Recover the amino acids of this structure.
């Protein structure tokens, strides 16, 4: 059953990233999205120990755990000029009505707007799975939380997440 779900949702992930890449190519910003894979995690090692990281998530181990636990997960690796500039990972809500973004991290000293780029793929994925909102879970600090709010999300202190309808 899990293998069947993995295959079905892999199709959704690929389609969401394809849609996002079409939009990104029309913006001519040089950014593209792929699934998070061994290439992405190898590239991540170049900035893994950078002291300017806001959070020190262990992406390779987190991803492997999520891959086994959440076949319906959302995943994206953002690239610019052949360099990894961001990673994101999420999953549908338990009720299936929303999509959670649990982890998002931009490479230190990167000038891209990772949230804007990732949101394109998130909203495409949400549409494919029938979700009507996106939650960004547990913003890393008040500055980041306020940034999400400026981007059209509303903050829910009770669940410590920022929500936006799609």
């Amino acid at each position: 059953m899990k293998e069947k779900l993995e295959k079905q949702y892999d199709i959704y992930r690929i389609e969401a990233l394809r849609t996002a890449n079409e939009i990104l190519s029309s913006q001519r910003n040089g950014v593209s999205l792929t699934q998070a894979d061994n290439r992405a995690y190898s590239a991540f090692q170049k900035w893994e120990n950078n002291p300017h990281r806001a959070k020190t998530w262990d992406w390779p181990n987190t991803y492997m755990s999520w891959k086994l636990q959440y076949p319906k997960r959302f995943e994206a690796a953002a690239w610019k000029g052949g360099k990894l500039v961001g990673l994101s990972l999420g999953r549908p809500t338990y009720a299936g009505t929303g999509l959670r973004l649990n982890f998002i991290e931009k490479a230190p000293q990167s000038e891209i707007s990772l949230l804007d780029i990732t949101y394109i793929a998130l909203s495409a994925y949400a549409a494919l799975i029938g979700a009507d909102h996106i939650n960004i879970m547990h913003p890393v600090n008040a500055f980041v939380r306020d940034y999400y709010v400026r981007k059209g999300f509303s903050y829910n202190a009770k669940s410590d997440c920022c929500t936006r309808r799609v």
